[in-house]
Amino acid sequence: MDGILIVDKPQGMTSHDVVSFLRRKTGVRRIGHSGTLDPMATGVLPVFIGRATRIIEYVGVSGDPAAKKYRCTMRLGVTTDTQDIWGECGSAPAMTEFSHSLTPVPPAPSRDEIERVLKTFEGEGTQKPPMYSAVKVDGRKLYEYARAGQIVGDERLRDRNIYINQIYVIDYDALADEVVFEVESSKGVYVRTICDDAGRLLGCGAAMSGLVRLASDGFTIEEAVPISALEDETTEKIAERLRPMESALASLPRVDLDEDGAADFVNGRITDAAAQDRVPVPVSCYWAQDRVPVPVSCYGPTGFLGIGMAKAGTIHPHKVIFRETI
To answer: Are residues 96 and 191 in the same domain?
Structure first.
């Protein structure tokens, strides 16, 4: 069983819980996923089964600025240590509660103000990973430090380069202090950090109260199957749902090899595309200076073969996944 299953992850399950469930259902041990979702988030989780696990590291490798799409619900007037409503609350005042305190309660921002602030995140930028995340510092995940009550200084938290293609408000309920917005972004963006940063800019505080991933690396929520639908299915039925693994590699340049070139590839030999004038190497394979290799998806007459590295007009076999060339 080799391929990709697009799962609609339910709230309350970790991404690893989904993998464990499918291992039990299918009996296949080699299963992994791309794009971890927080336990309370729902939506698209691509799960890679069998030989498909070998391509996970190349999914979204090109830095697609719209690789992910989310619908987020943001609660205004709240701050927490996890940047979502399931963490420990901070000191931000609730904007719609009556208070006898001498400290003034900030007025609820208008929809225009919220949209203006969210729009400031569009384009290239940087984002500091939240403490409750799987980013590693000195070999330990940040959430391990956080759960142990240990503080990791800002100087040890490297800002990550991100790109937000677009972000826009879908709905605003001023009485409930909740904003629903959608965001298209590169991979590696923490939407709850957007909420936390937006709350600071608005002056009222904010935390994520709901998140649905609508799309991930070309896979959409419309094609995702809920876990509940898989519980009573046979292994054969689940196998029928699998997408071919190459469907996750649309972001990589594609190289089509003829029969001889395919034989070279699967047998570990370098194909000199320029000299033989038989392999159409994509222009993007010549972008990098100093002949830095560029990953490409390689196909032969029978279909997908694996991942190669294009370098100065040559194709170097990197991960041979299918060896059948005839």
So the answer is: yes
Containing structural domain, residue 162: 68-213
Q: Is 281 in contact with 310 (CB distance < 8 Å)?
A: yes
Q: How many domains does the chain have?
A: 3
Instruction: Report the distance separating Cα 273 and Cα 258, nearest Å.
Output: 11
**CATH code for the domain in which residue 289 is found:** 2.30.130
Indicate whether 294 belongs to any domain.
yes
**pLDDT above 70 (res 138):** no
| Catalytic residue flag (residue 38) | yes
Identify whether residues 56 and 183 lie together within a single domain. no
150 shares its domain with 191: yes
Q: What is the pTM of this model?
A: 0.84
**What number of other Cβ atoms are within 10 A of residue 212's Cβ?**
19
pLDDT tens for 197-221 read 999 999 999 999 999 999 998 899 9
Do the strands 3-9 and 42-49 form a parallel or antiparallel pair, or are they unpaired?
antiparallel
Among candidate residues 38, 84, 217, 264, the one labeled active-site is 38
Q: What residues contact residue 270 under an 8 Å CB cut-off, 6+ apart?
A: 264, 314, 315, 316, 317
- Are the C-beta atoms of 284 and 253 separated by less than 8 Å? yes
